[in-house]
């Protein structure tokens, strides 16, 4: 596919069909890199991308007999009033 380079203010740009962006998994942000005379666009990783899967994997490794490292329970009877 051949496209025209168009002027955008002090810059230049090209129009990429939405179907091509969708096919590449590009939604909102891209990482642009230059290698020789080639410009490469790759989908940018979203913040916290993959965290849900990592948390599920970590949680699956927890056993009931694992020792408690930090007791985060609060004994309300021992709290002092201001």
TrEMBL record:
Name the SUPFAM superfamilies for this protein.
AbrB/MazE/MraZ-like
Q: Where is the SpoVT-AbrB domain?
A: 6-49
An example of a GO molecular function for this protein is: DNA binding
Q: What is this protein called?
A: Antitoxin MazE
- Record organism: Propionispora hippei DSM 15287
């Amino acid at each position: 596919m051949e496209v025209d380079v168009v002027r955008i203010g002090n810059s230049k740009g090209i129009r990429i069909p939405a179907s091509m962006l969708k096919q590449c998994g590009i939604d909102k942000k891209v990482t642009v890199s230059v290698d020789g005379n080639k410009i490469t666009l790759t989908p940018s990783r979203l913040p916290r991308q993959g965290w849900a899967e990592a948390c599920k994997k970590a949680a699956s490794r927890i056993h009931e007999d694992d020792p408690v490292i930090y007791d985060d329970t609060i004994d309300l009877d021992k709290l002092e009033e201001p």
